[in-house]
Amino acid sequence: MSEELKKMDELFDRLFPIMRSITGEGVRETIRILQEYIPLKMEGIPTGTEVFDWEIPKEWVIREAWIKDKQGNKIIDITDLNLHVVNYSEPVDGWFTLDELKKNIHTIPNKPDAVPYVISYYKERWGFCMSQNQLDSLTDGNYYAYIDSEKVDGELNFAQVVLPGKSDKEVLISTYICHPSMANNELSGPIVTTFLYNRIKQWEDRELTYRFVFIPETIGAISYLNKYGDHLRKKVYSGAVITCIGGKDYNLTLKRSRKDSTPLNKLLDYLVNKEGENINILPFNPNNGSDERHYCSPGFNLPITQFSKMTYGKYQGYHNSLDTKENMTIESLEESVNELEQILKLQELNGYYMNLKPFGEPKLDKYNLYPDINAPALRGRSNNTTLDNRQQLNQMMHVLNYSDGQHLLSDIISKQNYKMVDYIQTINLLIENGLLAGPFYEE
User: Fold this and answer.
1) Across 1-49, where does the E strand assignment appear?
2) Domain end point (choices 349, 378, 397)
């Protein structure tokens, strides 16, 4: 097991037991732990603050939640599984018949072993969650239901950190930290985002600036946009929401941004259609998903996509207790970090370029980039020494001809049959010899 994988596993085990919600100490504790891995700055917005059409709710404080039978045996207890209480539940303290209790118990009948994740953020109610099998096993009689909770004035918290690059154009990487103990649907996003930050931090030459945001889902994104939306409108070049990004043997999935002709949309189209990458591409759809719906709302229409793997709603453990580390696997998270890092590296390469010698072809042999004699022995060479079936030379001629500041690299190279990574050395040689400038991130 790699050192990185060990750290991911340790971070998972520390975060999994925390009772998280959209507000409260669980969010703050999660951020404080993440701050040991990356230098996040935590911010807060007070209860009652209007954020567009929404209002920051009171903080939910939960201390105990359990059900006992008449012999005093605990039937369920949130100290065993924090999914057992409806998130944001009102307090309750009293005896109920089984029929009365059932009105406030949630199960998943078609998944009889699973305990569901149920929320009621904006409607006051109390309730518990258990498996259908457990509910069916209860005998008639009286049961004591106890929830020690309250809602208090406080704040909604989120955190962010920025890695500056040569350009002030930003790539926004957003993930959520508001669900209790679920693996893929909660912890895959923040863990992958945390370790992706540390990978990008090591890049020697970052072209773009990277903004990493950890927020409660929906109300957190809306609150973040309320505070930083004007900045994002001006600076965001591309970005992605990272969610449900675990899953052994699952392909990476891109959900497109609402604005279709955007950098990540175009890059992934190229990788799938021209290079045959096994990446699923879904259209933008506001009916479901995560915070890309808010970043892509018509008032902002930011170029924000979404990356996932074991996608929400399409696996057995979605929003229930079957969403475990064993079903997700930590190894799949490291694989996702590898894949996302490669995509973001290619996005940096996939900018606009300018030919600095645009009047006729440059005299490439002056720079040892072309054979200086036309002879049978040099056919198939890019210069006097490089025997590569003229691959480098073909790439250079194509890049130089179309580098007019109006074509992304992916548009240029789609006319040839070389992979994008093959152009890294070619472009570096052209830049080093003063023949090419870039990458730029605006036409």
Assistant:
1) 41-46
2) 349
Question: Where does a domain end: 108, 125, 152?
Answer: 152
What is the domain extent for residue 426? 352-440
Is residue 324 within 8 A of residue 408, CB to CB? The reply is no
Predicted TM-score (pTM) of the model is 0.96
What per-residue string of b and e applies to 21-53 under the rule 16 or more CB within 10 Å gives b? bbbbbbbbbbbeebeebbebeebbbebeeebee
443 residues of the chain, pLDDT tens digit each: 799 999 999 999 999 999 999 999 999 999 999 999 999 999 999 999 999 999 999 999 999 999 999 999 999 999 999 999 999 999 999 999 999 999 999 999 999 999 999 999 999 999 999 999 999 999 999 999 999 999 999 999 999 999 999 999 999 999 999 999 999 999 999 999 999 999 999 999 999 999 999 999 999 999 999 999 999 999 999 999 999 999 989 999 999 999 988 999 999 999 999 999 999 999 999 999 999 999 999 999 999 999 999 998 889 999 999 999 999 999 999 999 999 999 999 999 999 999 999 999 999 999 999 888 787 777 888 788 888 888 998 999 999 999 999 999 999 999 899 999 999 999 999 999 999 999 999 87
**SS3 state of residue 424:** helix
How many CA atoms lie within 13 Å of 256's alpha carbon, on the beta-carbon side?
A: 16
Residues 160 and 309 reside in one and the same domain: yes
C-alpha–C-alpha distance, residues 371 and 393, integer Å: 10
Query: End-to-end CA distance of the chain, in Å?
Result: 44
